[in-house]
Amino acid sequence: MKKNVLFFILFIATIQAYGQQVHDGINAAQFGLREQKDATPAILKALDACYESGASRLIIPKGTYHFYPDYALEEYLTLTGASNGLRRIAFPLINFEDLVIDGSGSTFIMHGMMLPFEVQECKNISIRNINIRFVSSVWGEGTVTEVNKDGSFFTIETNRGDSLEVSNGALSIKNGGENLPVEIVGWLRPGTSGNCSFSPSSIESSGIISVKPLSHGNFWIEVRGNKLPRKGWKLVWESDSERLEGKISPAFHLSGSDGVRLSNISIAHAPGKVIVAEQSGNVMLDRLNVLPDSVVGRKLSVLTDGVHFIGCQKKIVISNCKFSGIMGDAVSVSGLTLKIIKRITNNVVGVRPVNEKQWGSQFAQVGDTIRFIDTKKSSLCCERVVTRIRDLNEQYQEFWFDRAFPETVREGTLLSNISRQPEVVLRGNRFSNIIGNGINLQTSGKIIVEGNIIRSGRHDINLGGEFASAFQPIMLDQVFIKNNTFRRCSTGKANDALIMIGPIISDTPADTTYFHKDVTIEGNTFYNEGKSILAAVATSGLVVRQNTVFNPASAKMTNSLIRLQRCKKVGIVGNRYLDKQEARLQVEQVSDLLFFDNEGIKAP
């Protein structure tokens, strides 16, 4: 009897302790998480416990943890912008709800081609206080230490962790037990103010005569012709092998999730994009730092785009983040585009993604409104609502619509989903040394860009899409660009405006359609270095007000300060251009222009 009573007391105490643990959160250390061991199995066990118990918090004690692919969960994933296929995942968050993962400031070191976080079909997920570093990657840098013009050779010093080798007289990296060839992408040229400009390499594989190893991590490279760099430049290389395409993953992949918050997270030397978010909504990034690995002296943090939202909806908020050393666009928001390859009936079509990197990605749901675009005439055909979807394979789908199509809808017509147009807010972020666009937004949702510092090599802000290349014509509606600081990352010859609004679907003079409307650019500071601060087309209701423009003495203002084409209801009021030389405007087919109280800007 006493034994039964004792057992009952112990059982109740155990239940109470477990209940208290679930209430306060599950600690991953209880499942064998140790700094000296592979953390992957322990994290999988801890996540299973969270899922089964309904725990609202997973606590990871502060430390440095290593993740290896040997015992990671493997899933077949559709990754827009990368190859679909099997991925090894460190944190598989699939069908989770109301969970906080707190890393307590820990560092996660990823070995091999790991996908750190897969967030799939989840609701209300928060991931915070984590530093992610990738040990092995598919790209790297080397500093030019010596240049010999007479001998047509130069030497480079690379990071030892990149594991560059010489195989058959060429640079290579070892992956999976085999040597993969390396391609020279280009050169980073450091500037006096700490920023860098990028030049593509003119050295093809056939242009390299010989490569020899020197001391560990140092190489001697002989080239043909006048293709020598300068001492101090950074050589940027990447593996050109297709064997790695199916392994490269972002640091975070969000798919079909709602209410995801990533906060106080740092990511260094990612092999692919930093974040890819697909068909998700209400995503918030706060204090996300994507910076070069300063410990090993890198200038780049990512060789592709940084953060990419594709086919998302509801709201995207990015605040207090730092992006630096990104080769592509730092932040990009866009949608998927399909092409009709078969008109089956008057309201049914067979479609295929225009880009193989979009194969298998979800384009629409029943009830979404789709826009049909005639590519031959670059004009809008019609809009219809999806009533049924049939997925046959990753490359081919069939769509039913609520009404019959006009005759202009035929093979080759493009489809764009206008129901998935998220509201975007970027506030208090810092963009520096971005080689591509700082911010690239293709959405009809409300846009607020406020209090950011942006320095990029192309457009600091690119709005509306690029129909010729991205197949994503978008109608902007309610855009507010306020109190930002804009700078140029490089002083190239191209006159890429700091803010670009465009393009238009039809460029025929008889077309009076104004795609974009209600755009306000107010209270910003521009350091334009002789370039245009704004280029806008097909916009109605454009207000450029109380902005200040500085032009350094070294940059002659030979370009128009503002370029407008086919716009109406435009107000340019109270702006200041601070330079001895008066700036001018370029105005074509602009009506209802209000221009007054502008300093240093010549009236059109």
From TrEMBL:
The regions listed as transmembrane in this protein's record are none
Q: Where is the GLAA-B beta-barrel domain?
A: 349-412
Instruction: List the Gene Ontology MF annotations in alphabetical order.
Output: alpha-galactosidase activity
Q: Does the keyword Magnesium apply?
A: no
Q: Which Pfam families did the record assign? A: Beta-barrel_GLAA-B_II, Beta_helix
Record key words, sorted? Glycosidase, Hydrolase, Repeat
Q: Which SUPFAM superfamilies match?
A: Pectin lyase-like (SSF51126)
**Domain (Right handed beta helix): residue spans on this chain:** 424-553
- Keyword Secreted (UniProt): no
Q: Which reaction does it catalyse?
A: Hydrolysis of terminal, non-reducing branched (1->3)-alpha-D-galactosidic residues, producing free D-galactose; Hydrolysis of terminal, non-reducing alpha-D-galactose residues in alpha-D-galactosides, including galactose oligosaccharides, galactomannans and galactolipids
**Protein name per the record:** Uncharacterized protein
The organism's taxonomic lineage, starting at the top: Bacteria, Pseudomonadati, Bacteroidota, Bacteroidia, Marinilabiliales
